[in-house]
Design goal:
Layout: E1 2-10, E2 13-26, E3 29-37, H1 43-53, E4 66-73, H2 75-86, H3 89-93, H4 99-113, H5 118-122, H6 130-133, H7 144-157, H8 159-170, E5 176-185, E6 210-218, E7 223-230, H9 239-249, E8 256-258, H10 266-274, E9 278-282, H11 285-293, H12 300-304, E10 307-312, E11 315-324, H13 326-351, H14 359-373, E12 379-384, E13 387-392, H15 394-401, E14 406-411, H16 420-428, H17 431-443, H18 455-478, H19 480-483, H20 496-504, E15 507-513, E16 516-521, H21 526-534
Parallel strand pairs: 5-8, 8-9
Antiparallel strand pairs: 1-2, 2-3, 4-15, 5-6, 6-7, 9-14, 10-11, 11-14, 12-13, 15-16
Helix pairs in contact: 2-4, 2-20, 4-7, 4-18, 7-18, 13-14
Length: about 550
Amino acid sequence: MYVEEIKNKQKNKTYVTVLIRETYRKAGKVLHRTLANISKLPRPTIEQIKRIITRETIYALDRESINVEQAREYGAVYTLWQMAKALQMDTMIYSRSEQWRNDVLAMIVGRLVYQGSKLSLTNLYDTTALWELAGHESGIRPDVETHCYEPLDRLLERQAAIQKALAKKHLQEGCMILYDITSSYVEGDYTNSELVAYGYNRDGKRGHEQIVIGLLTNQEGCPVAVEVFKGNTSDQTTVLGQAKKVAEDYGVKSVVFAGDRGMLTPKRIEEVTELGYKTLTALTHPQIRALLEKKVIQLGLFDERNLAEVRDPDQPNLRYVLSRNPIIAEEETTTRQALISKATEAFEKLKNRKKKQTEQELSAAVGKILGRYKVGKFFEWKVDQSHLEFSLRAEKIEEEKALDGCYIIRTDVAETELNTAQVRQSYKQLAQVEKAFRNLKTVSLEMRPIYHHTDDRIRAHIFLCMLAYYVQWHMVKQLQPLFESDGKGKNRRWSLDIVLNQLKAIRKTVCTIEKVPLDIVSTPSSAQQKILDLLNVSL
């Protein structure tokens, strides 16, 4: 929206027509239309209108000519709304335009822009244009039960169909699928829940019950499917079910299933292979030592070359790609030494404790120390007549140090499909799933803590967060030129938060000018316009 002044000269006299105009697209063409003729307004009033439109500070207004009713955040919610529709999120949710579908879109966009609970999102009805975009009347607060919780229930009913549509868009025969798992804690009483349970907590929230979440993405990290498991579910037990889902539900019969070393154990690899899939994962340190003992590999290979490939004569279809990262090697050595030092200090305090303890009490205390610092294999100890003796196993420490920074990737994918460098790069892509979890849980979407108190609502909430991340993933991809370095190793100081704050600053002012009602959107700054151009959004 803009103010245009048109000068027309007639018989040595100049007439000025002042119009409020806007641009719009039709059939791929940029067109212009007039919203109001404000030529008869006093010049000071016209200047004030210009300030409204360009979002400059407004001072004394002519209240008889202009009535400003409200100003709301508009740019961020409108942009992401348009992006969601461009990604066909609306039709994937439901083929027909119904209010509940719009409410789901509002929650997806709200998750990206504002985070917080569903209730807090409805409280923003008066400060953001989000709910108006969803079809709600301005100034009327949406009901959290009707416009949040009930649409969530409808969304859950559509999860399988939506994920199938996402798989059709982003998975194809022969592609690589990344799979990982995480946990998220909950708040409140879940006595009747079949999902919530105590388990291995990745959030560091001891004493909190949790759920476990499995996420499937394509090789680029684009989310395709999510599933919620019981809180005490182990990582590896979820693998076969997810692999079958890809084959049976999504119809993709030939893929490379990639997961971390704790996920794709030998047994799970066997199960996935029986489905006709190839696999790609890293080896654990015990598995690496087994290859060393069989002389399939030699430690010298890690030092001689940054990247090497070997094959097991007993299993010629398997390829082992060896690599070593010196930075990680130093970090692992330093971390291990710090833990050993802390454990040693704790042992010394325990040994010199004046309070008399039984052998059972001392043994329990030793176990607690070793469990806390996870360095049991580096110590020898014994308790004899309430006396503790311990020593370091130097050979074990050196043995472990020799493998610091070393990793081996195991795959049965043929070299014609993935060369050595591509194998390494493909495994590194698993970091994309970890990044997805960070975004879902803390960075920008704040999936946790979870306050929903029924299993289905928990499932729906997690799925909603995944859909929000789906939109965000595409947003970040399109904005990549902003996030890349300037070629001199310096970051351009852009981030997703900065982008959203820039867009939030674009406001819609509802006002009446000369009795003509107008919604005036502030003119984007150069930085804001750059963002909009990259996202292919026109205000």
